[in-house]
Structures are given as structure tokens and as C-alpha cells.
Amino acid sequence: MKFNTKTIHGGQSHEAATGSVMPPIFQTSTYAQSSPGKHKGYEYSRAQNPTRTALENAFAAIENGTHGFAFSSGLSAIDCVLRLLNPGDEIIAGDDLYGGTYRMFTRLFQKYGLQFTFVDMTNTDTVTEALTEKTRLIWMETPTNPLMKIADIAAITKTVKAYNTDILVAVDNTFSTPYIQRPLDLGADIVMHSATKYLGGHSDLVMGALMVKDKKLGENLHFIQFAGGAIAGPMDSFLALRGVKTLHLRMQRHSENGNAVANFLVGHPKVGEVYYPGLANHENHEVAKKQMDHFGGMVSFRLKDESQRAAFTFLENTKVFTLAESLGGVESLVNHPNTMTHASIPEPERLKIGITDSLIRLSVGVEDIEDLLADLTQALEKVS
Ligand code: P1T
Fold first, then answer.
1. What is the residue-wise DSSP string for 142-182?
2. Catalytic residue flag (residue 371)
3. pTM
């Protein structure tokens, strides 16, 4: 199947009892057994639930994986991956990550003896130089949140695997989605999503996803999901599956609107740098062109006026863009990483990578582009 067919039909079958086209919401915790251990494949909903199974099959299909897993949040999906590791293992992670991911790495897992090294993954050599015999996991976001930096998934995977085939390469594909880039096809072992974002697509649930293509790795992750218990519930699974079915339609419009907004901002007198991988002058545009089919709906930029007052004036005055954390829904959102989504990163670290008060992040929705540009125009006019 091609991608647009896969989002709708991938891994799906009509429900056996009634032919229901959409999987019912199996709002149950448990399943009848005729004799101990004799059941229809479902024992207890932490282990399996048919609505979640339908979604997990769709997750696997859209990322060209064989196994998909749905979690109660994006962070719990990341937590599951880290539980594959042992004390003393080293993780090389990108230096620009969602603040909650950084917080989990440094404040939850470091104390269990995992060692994290944060490097600029736009340069494959810096990843290679950070490899040691204890490295067990590479964790990358591409594009990164919020600076939209691009890592070369195929090149990094190649160099890492040449060093040691036991090292797992995981890609947080939240910003791109498989409509735009498919990390498993580029050699990565694990794809992770905050399904709260584009996969769900409607800002109505919190969910995480993992997709893999290796059977043993899939079994290990399933065991951790079952034993750890951070599963997605049936109602959320139903909603996310409904979201996935229109992923290709939404991502097409997100990408068109994202591109238009980025180009609008580039020419604006009150705007400094614009971070969008589709711009020809983006630092990693060539790699982006190679591994991304489109460039998505996430755009970050700086106001020329670097004061917090200027940023807040802009943020308080958008009308179509809602000031809120999160991204990837049909509606446009605007966010201030320095005080909102990335505030959990210590200030010196934020400053080092360029998360300052002047940085603004847009999740460009699927509204009419004229309304979005008019909204940005009027809010920018308010900035002195
Ligand atoms: O919020 P949750 O579903 O637990 O997902 C965490 C997460 C993981 N990875 C990336 C790239 C993310 O952007 C997120 C969540 N991000 C936001 C809430 C945000 O506004 O950036």
C-alpha cells in the first residue's frame, strides 16, 4: 500500500462480530475465560485491548514497522525505551530536545546510573566522536524542538552501526510524522512519537507511540509496556486512530501553510532569524531535502527586539494563533519556549543552544493561510 492508503487501511480489518468499519471502543478492563488460561487472545487490558491493538497496527503500518505500541503519553513512550538499558550504559542525545525529554533524561534516569551526553547532531562527526564502548542508545529529534535543527538519520545510523551494531538508534519523529520522513527506512531501530501532536491531530488526547521493525526488540518493548503499565486507554486509542486516518491530508496542508508562514516571516522587518527546514538558507536544508518529503508545519523565529516585553506583546496579541503549549493539532498555536515548553531546561543550557526570550515557536494549523498571515501581521504590528 502507498502512504495515503496506509493511513486509512494499514494494519486494519473490520471488526469480526459485526463488520463494524471502525473498531469499537472496547471499554473493558478484562475478558471472560472459559477455563483458566483459555481465552480469545485477550486477558487483561494492560496486556492487550482490541481498540489499542487496532491503533498499534496502524502505528506500525504508517512507519513501515512490524510492531507498534501506544502509551499514555509521549514521555511514557520514551521512558519505555530507556528501560531497555542498564545502569552504566551511555546515551548520546541531541542538544536541542523537547524540555520534558531533557528533564526525564537528567532528573529521572541519570540517578539510575544512565549517562547522557548531549551533542549537536547536525554534525554527524560530533556523534561519532562521542561514541564509547558503553554507548547503547542514540536519541535524536529531527527537526528538533524548538530550533528546527536537522540530523542526518541515515548518516548517523551508518556510522553508529559501523562502530557497534548493538547500539540502538531512536528517532523522535513527532515534528515530521511518517508523511514527511520514515526513520525505520533510513536504518533507525526505533521511532517514537508524541501522538498527542500530529498523529492524534486534534489536541484532544495525550499519547505516545513507538514503532519498530525488529521482532526481538518489539517483544522487549511489549514486555516493558505490559510490566510498566503506561498504556493508552481505549477511548484515546479510538480517537488517535481516527486522527491517523487523515494524517496525510492534514500534513499536506500543514506543510503548505508552514512554508507560506516561514516565507512571510523571512521578509518581515520586525523578524530576525527564521528556522524552517524548507528555507533554502536553513543551515541543514540539503540534509532536510534528502530525508524529508515535505517540511511540515513547525516554524520558529526570533523577533529583532530581543526583550521579553516584545515577545510577550506578540504572544498576547495573536487571535487566530492560540498561545498554548503543544503542537500538531488542526488549529494554529504559538508558544514561548523559554518560559513555557522548555523552561525545565536549566537557563545556562537554554542560553547555550539559543533558547532565549526572542524565540517564538509556531505550530501552523490547517486554517486558511490568508487568516494566519493577517493574524501574524497584526500581532507583529503591536511589537514596537
Ligand atoms: O507531551 P507528551 O505526549 O508526553 O510528549 C512529549 C514530547 C516528546 N517529544 C517531542 C518532540 C515533543 O514535542 C513532546 C511534547 N511537546 C510539547 C508539549 C511541546 O509543546 O513542545
1. SS-TTT-----HHHHHHHHHHH-TT-EEEEE-TTT-TTT--
2. no
3. 0.98
Write out the three cell numbers for 225.
509496556
pLDDT value, residue 296: 98
* Residue 355 grid cell: 533558547
Torsion of CA 177, 178, 180, 186, to 10 degrees: 120
Cα-only R_g, the chain: 21
10-residue mean pLDDT profile of the chain (384 residues): values are 97 93 96 96 96 98 98 98 98 97 97 97 98 98 98 98 98 98 98 98 98 98 98 98 98 98 97 98 97 98 98 98 98 98 95 96 98 98 94
Nearest by Cα to 308 from 268, 343, 265 = 343
Residue located nearest, by CA, to atom 1 of ligand 1: 74
Q: How far apart are CA 12 and CA 22, in angstroms?
A: 9
Distance (Å, whole) CA 129 – CA 136: 15
Measure 145 CA to ligand 1 centroid, in angstroms.
Answer: 9
DSSP state of 30: B
- Torsion of Cα atoms, 16 then 202 then 359 then 97, to 10°: -20
∠ CA 254-69-85 to the nearest 5 degrees?
110
Choosing from 79, 95, 96, 98, the catalytic residue is: 98
- At residue 69, φ and ψ (nearest 5 deg) are -140, 135
Query: What is the model's pLDDT at position 131?
Result: 98
**Ligand 1, atom 4, residue with closest C-alpha:** 74
Grid cell of 39 as nine digits: 481465552
Q: Which among 142, 149, 194, 344 is the best mutation to test ligand 1's pocket, defined by most ligand atoms within 8 Å of the CB? A: 194
